[in-house]
Amino acid sequence: MSAPDFTVDVFQNEYLPVGACEVNAIVTVSSAGSAADGPAAAASAAEIIIIDCSGSMGLPMAKMDQARKATDAAIDAIRDGVAFAVVAGNWRARPAYPEDGTLAVADANTREAAKVSLARLHPAGGTAMGKWLLCARELFATREDALRHAILLTDGQNTQFPGRLAAAIRQCEGYFRCDCRGVGTDWKVSELRKISTALLASVDIVPDPAGLAADFEAMMQASMAKEVAGIALRVWTPQRATVRFIKQVAPAVEDLTGRRAQAAPQAGDYPTGAWGAESRDYHMCVDVEPGAAGQEMLAARVSLTLSTASGSQTLGRGLVRAIWTDDEALSTRISRHVAHYTGQAELAQAIQDGIEARKAGDEDTAAARLGRAVALAHESGNKDTAKLLAKVVDVIDPASGTIRLKAKVADADEMMLDTRSTKTVQVRK
Fold it and tell me: Would you state the pLDDT for residue 3?
């Protein structure tokens, strides 16, 4: 199948005051999707659903029952021709379907067989997520599918072999994507976020087990919409220029800076995961040598590249420029895109800082950081985040960020604010 059509657009104020060395730009990458559809489009996809079967999933048993129903719904959303498997995880990991350690090919018969296998799952034992991830990796290795995606569901914390989780994540990084879901409130957001961030997917809370089926179905449908993997942002910079950071800033904040892989002299690749028909924004900051008035330079060249067996294919390109000027009207003009996403990244950080301070009993810091988050959410029009903040703090004046900490906050509300803190709104047209 041919790669989807991509466009790359750069938004910035290229004018810098004399002596300045910091260049900022927002790079918008959009994919229109491809014309191909049907079984041919799904032939190179593989899905694995990892279900927590530890003892706590039976307390109450409704969690296990709803997990089975959610997996049923996800299996129904898998298109014919897509490879799939179900993994049962507790202190160990085992293939629940197929049981022979392979992946089945989705059709009416295999879907029904998988559902029969789910009925035999029973909760027992502890939680060792590292083993679950490595089991999924081994199963994916039985095929050569380009699009590999997993869903991981848990209701608890990684209590067994905790030191092995980080190593397991590293082994799976770049090999498959993994959406993580926590049901209830006894799991740790930071733990699942480490998995989802490294494996280029999402983390979220499902407070009520009854909501699992709809969420699983939506995740699987979103995965089925992906058409191509192996795409990276390749950033070239001239000599004596360096990338300070590059972050995805929409639809969610993800720092890609530390994931750079050297691609060529003065060029590095930053992974972006799998794509369908969608648009994402990236904030790039490049340090360059200061210039004199009238001097102009190419600060960076951004290419969207697709890695294939025969090499790299360029799907789109954009240029980041720097022009030094002594005209204050030009150099002080603020790029609307850069300003907006700088605020969205600060919003995510302020929420996470505020929640951590509140947990530590530092109410002054918690109030200051969550108040700043309220102001940023109001300023940018991020209504979803503003609603989540209002469940954790009493908002007195959203414009100034004047708030009071609530005396009592439901665990689910605090965890929902934490998991969704990185979700952003795109710049207003």
Answer: 65
Residue 23 Cα distances to 20, 251, 286, 303, 392, angstroms: 8, 23, 5, 17, 37
- Alpha helices by DSSP H, listed for 234-301, are none
248 φ/ψ angles, rounded to the nearest 5 degrees: -75, 130
pLDDT in tens, 321-363: 999 999 999 999 999 999 999 999 999 999 999 999 999 999 9
Pull the structure tokens for residue 136. 């999924």
Count Cα neighbours of 24 within 13 Å in the Cβ-side half-sphere: 15
Q: How confident is the model at residue 2 (pLDDT cuts 50, 70, 90)?
A: low
Render pLDDT for 185-221 as a digit per residue (tens, 0 to 9).
Answer: 999 999 999 999 999 999 999 999 999 999 999 999 9
Closest of 420, 260, 254 to residue 341, by C-alpha: 254
Give the torsion sign (CA, 403, 406, 407, 412): negative
Whether the CB-CB separation of 396 and 406 falls below 8 Å is answered with no
Q: Give, for 419, the enclosing helix (H) or strand (E).
A: helix 411-419
* CA angle, residues 353, 173, 258, in degrees to nearest 5: 50
Q: Is the dihedral of CA 351, 355, 360, 362 positive or negative?
A: positive
The encoded tokens of residue 346 equal: 């600060």
Burial class (CB in 10 A: 0-12, 13-18, 19+), 153: buried
pTM of structure: 0.95
Positive/negative CA dihedral, 134, 229, 179, 166: positive
Q: Which two tokens stand for residue 1?
A: 């199948």
Question: How far apart, in whole angstroms, are the C-alpha atoms of residue 268 and residue 275?
Answer: 20
